[in-house]
Amino acid sequence: MNISQQIVSKFTATKTLPHVALKVNQLVRDERATMHDFEEVIRLDPVLVTRLLRLVNSPYFGLAKKVESISKAVVFCGFKQLRNLVAVEALRGMFKGDGERFSREKLWLHSATVAILAEMIAKRIFGLEGEDVFLAGIIHDVGLVAEDQVAGEELRLAADATRRGEGSLVASERRYLGTDHCEIGALLAKEWKLGDEVLKSIRYHHDERKSFTLPSVPAIMVLADFMAFKMQYNPVPGVPVPSLPPALARHVKSMMANYKIIVRDLPEEMEKAKELYRIDD
């Protein structure tokens, strides 16, 4: 068992996605699944039902009429969107904890920002639905949470080194922990049976050597992560903005006017989505 596997094993011994979240994800990937199947699984967790209905009725969705049942929520949101909301609720509690050298709460805000930006890019630039890139965005840095749980001081030393200009966060993680959050996050995504595109997004979102093809989920997620850094929604305070792979940099330059509009509209979208990413329950 290598270092990454050891960290994942120790992390999942205390924290993992709840059974309902895992089951909902399986249903999304099952072409035979029905609306009734979703409703039956989600009803197993009454607290989750309450929170999902609160999210569905939040300004983020802007529904004209209040939704009062899970069956109607499935109709309005669709299977994948509901899967994302279940994932948000499952992950939210893992990101509690603040601090100057590393803050899970700032990491959660960064993750939510990346998810919202990724969905905006998918819809506005490429005309796609955006549910899969949202999921990739909300979960892409979960490896940092596992590192914080299992090797918190080493993670802080890596962050300190990066702030001093001693290389990227990923390079510093490898120096102090012997692995990085991308590799750990991908192992978690595999264990949780998330889709291949989401897994690739997590594994390669800091790999500048990787060739990203637009409009793939990994490519859009990398764009959203870069934009979140540029707009100061940093997962680790003081860590510099990672560079964008050349092909994606050329794409942004060619569509600069469109991306400026996304930047302009992000604060409003974040305000509407507050119910998604607040963690003060």
UniProtKB/TrEMBL annotation:
HDOD domain mapped to chain residues: 14-208
**What keywords appear on the UniProt entry?**
Hydrolase
One function term, GO molecular function aspect: hydrolase activity
Family matches, as SUPFAM superfamilies: HD-domain/PDEase-like (SSF109604)
The record's annotation in NCBIfam families points to:
HDIG
The identity of this protein, by name, is Metal dependent phosphohydrolase
Q: Which organism is it from?
A: Desulfurivibrio alkaliphilus (strain DSM 19089 / UNIQEM U267 / AHT2)
